[in-house]
Amino acid sequence: MTPMTVESESPDGPMSAGTGRPVRLSLTRRAGRPARHLADLSRDERRQVAVSLGQPAFRADQLSRHYFARLVDADETEAMTDLPEGGRGPLLEALLPRLLMPTRTLSCDDGLTRKIAWRTADGALLESVIMRYPDRATVCVSSQAGCGMGCPFCATGQGGLTRNLSTAEIVEQVVHAARVLRRRELAGGEGRLSNVVFMGMGEPLANYTAVTAALRRLIAPPPEGLGLSARGLTVSTVGLVPAMRRLAGEGLPVTLAVSLHAPDDELRDELVPINTRWPVAEVLAAAWEYAEASGRRVSIEYALIDGVNDDVARADALATLLTGRLAHVNLIPLNPTDGSSWQASAPAGQRAFVRRLRQRGIATTVRDTRGREIAAACGQLAAEPAGRARHVESATTVEAAGAADGSPAHGNRVLR
Question: What is d(CA 181, CA 163) in angstroms, rounded to the nearest whole number?
Fold first, then answer.
């Protein structure tokens, strides 16, 4: 198959970033698309595949229940006792191929946080992070391998975009997390996955079709999907306004998180280059449209950078933009990334920023910086080859497979 170039979905055409630097929204597919997987297909489409193999349509439902309800891995064929042994192989090959291979798994926070570096069948690298809290369990998933948004404080953005992930490649990260929790592989005993945040590698709304299909698959009950609550799903964006408006019409009551990072266009042009295409006023107008359509409070993500965007005057400016709106601010002390001289705000500066927002009546939380030791915190995911990974003494390697690829991170911004 000849490699081809396709553009990430943007209802408004090509975009450019500040100072003439292009925002990389195009991707080059490698030799071959991801294999078809049942998570890419509707229930009827899966049943049609079963029939095409000469099997009853309900066999597709049985396989889907193994995957979504029992969380059976594709290699555990002996657990699928309701599928005739003779027809099991062709059905698995057609509907349950292996899409992601773990190359490195690291654990920290006393075993409550786990980062997995994945390699796709065509060699693309991505990462996801599982985090356990007293009242919930969250997985932060990637929607792209790499990212084309070019935000200078984000490790993924510094690395550029490889390609969009398929619906099934996104869903598989979630199913894997649910499996890990159910099988007591994370500290704290058996658990149930409650939250999914699209805050890993990539800009979710630049891969709109696959992401919205994944959301529907995660919400639908088995055998159609995983059966999660829509209220536990969060989709982040740097502000792709046409896609935000399109999402408002999808009827998906998920939380929208807007990575704002500055209340004024002059600074945001530098921190979030896509702002030169859709400035702050347009991004927030689309966010308020989403809040009205969904009834869900918008999360405003704001990385606090020492001496850059953490002054009290900007806290006032941010409060002015948000007063009276269905929104809350999620402040994120900047996590260190290679190649950047920026640092997190000093504790006193953080406290002053929070205090001013709350004085102005703005609901504000400060992000729990989980996973820093294994480069799994917000802005750190990079999916570097293992040889380039930073050395971390407190991190524990849980498992290794394949080519030992991976050290992490990008925009995984997990809500408190």
Answer: 29
> How big, in percent rounded to 5, are the helix, strand and coil portions of the chain?
35, 25, 45
DSSP-derived letter for residue 124 is: -
Strand-strand pairing, 5-7 and 26-28: antiparallel
CA distance 76 to 311: 55
Is the model's pLDDT at 271 over the cut of 60?
yes
Greatest pairwise CA separation for the chain in angstroms: 70
Q: What are phi and psi of 104, to 5 degrees?
A: -160, 140
179/279 Cα distance (integer angstroms): 41
Active site residues: 127, 378
Query: pLDDT digits over 327-347, tens only?
Result: 999 999 887 776 667 888 999
The percent of residues above 70 in pLDDT, for the chain, comes to: 80
pTM: 0.85
| Of the candidates 228, 125, 142, the residue with the CA atom closest to the CA atom of residue 181 | 228
Work out the pLDDT band at 369, boundaries 50, 70, 90.
Answer: low
Question: Phi then psi for 299, rounded to 5 degrees?
Answer: -95, 125
